[in-house]
């Protein structure tokens, strides 16, 4: 096996996997495997020591896009950073998240600016106007270096429905400060936004209680 100081990362990975599954290893073999794993991770960290503000996209048909983004919001708040959340579609729900996060009012700006799902409003012109209003508010935070993280909740849906144009959103993202993170959630993220993003996660729908069992949205799970 190549010396750990000179081996490429791929071969280090292969060496780790060659030791077999952890459940089949003796205590000594397990320790060796974990040591090799540590070598790989330490070298990766050493070679990737840069940091920058990320453009993050959560999309796909599965649940959890907003929930995952709110986890990042909580982390940022825990670090003492200032955070802004702008909701583009779900605003009419007045979600429980807004109540819970109100305890962080000195660090957090929360704007629920949509009027609910599009099949409820049934007014395309009004939906478009509300989406544009929400984007203008979001842009205030995106370009403000005082805010470390900006969450644009369900903006991808507004893009998919044509309420906003992706070119305008990309231009706004280009104006963000170097260290600012922006998260854009919602199904149907356009290819141009995915290409621009630094981190993209697609939530895959496998089972859903509404579809399979007729279970409606419940507090604490959906809102």
Task: Write up this protein.
- There is one protein chain.
- By secondary structure, the chain is of the alpha/beta class.
- 45% of the residues lie in helices and 13% in strands.
- The chain is built from 10 helices and 6 strands.
- Strands 3-2-4-5-1-6 form a 6-stranded parallel sheet, sandwiched between helices.
- α1 (9-18) packs antiparallel against α2 (27-47).
- Mean pLDDT is 84; it is low at 1-9.
CATH topology of the largest domain: Rossmann fold
Number of domains: 2
Q: What portion of residues belong to β-strands?
A: 5-15%
Distance between the termini: 53 Å
How many distinct beta strands?
6
User: Any idea what the CATH architecture of the largest domain is?
Assistant: 3-Layer(aba) Sandwich
Helix-strand topology string = HHEHEHEHHEHHEHEH
CATH class of the largest domain: Alpha Beta
User: Number of helical segments?
Assistant: 10
Structural class by helix and strand composition: alpha/beta
Q: Low-confidence segments, ≥5 residues, pLDDT <50?
A: 1-9
Percent helix among the residues?
A: 40-55%
Q: Please give the largest β-sheet.
A: 6 strands, parallel
- The CATH homologous superfamily of the largest domain is called P-loop containing nucleotide triphosphate hydrolases
Give the C-alpha Rg: 22 Å
Report strand order across the widest sheet.
3-2-4-5-1-6
- Give the integer mean of the pLDDT values: 84
The dominant shape is globular
